[in-house]
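Hey, resending since the last one bounced:
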Amino acid sequence: MRTILVLLRPIAVGLLIALPAANVAPVLIRVPGGAILEIVFLGVFLWWTSGGGPPARLRPFRADRFRRTRLSAPEWLWGLLAALSFAASVHAAIVLLFRFEPFPAQAFHRGYDLSFIPTQSLRWLVCVLAALSAGVCEETGFRGYMQRPIELMGRPALAILISSVFFTLAHLNKSWALLAMVPIIFGAGVLLGWLARASGTLLFGMLGHWVMDIGLFAYWWTQIAGTFTEHPVWQSGWDQAFAIECAVFIMALTALITAILRLKKLSASSSSPDIVNVI
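The structure tokens again:
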């Protein structure tokens, strides 16, 4: 019981940091000048959650939860590879999923209609900003304020599991969150949690999450970049396209795991004065 009560605090704080902030963008896009307001909001959010502003006595705590650290050039290189291969892995997994069952375009599009926005360029801007908001706020909440304190209890695997479970639960109210999508959402959470733990920073997870969500918003959800039209393999057969899609998924996931393992080794061999272990 004591362990459960200790875990409730980072879970609650992580949810409070992630969910309200991540849902500011859908409100602001309907307001004149909403794009500028969203950028300002994200700037303030990053400043405060990374250790700026009041209360001063909690600045080290917030800096630690945000995983503030200095990164070497090799860490940046492997981190960028991890971010991009993460986004590619998730999209490749979704493609493979809908090569085994029909793509429910209407379910994915429901709730993401941008027809009220007059131009295609503004719709793209909305997708980019909404994706940025989700990437920044959710990584800060789930992989920072929720996962980091549990790691400091000496339970990194449990920390990643818990943050991934609540990350998944937070998305189950979406119309696209079909039963078959749950393993992909959970798997994405595990990979992001592992990346944050191995690299010691949220930056690469934010970038990967952002790039992933740009594709999700523009292609799978709003469908302003097109609609998935391939047929399941039981209709089309095991064609060349399916072989390429399998190869892309395997290569992207292999690149991601390789990058994470390299980041773990690099992070372990360096010590940064910017990390403050506050339990």
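The two ends are 19 Å apart (CA to CA).

Sorry for the duplicate.
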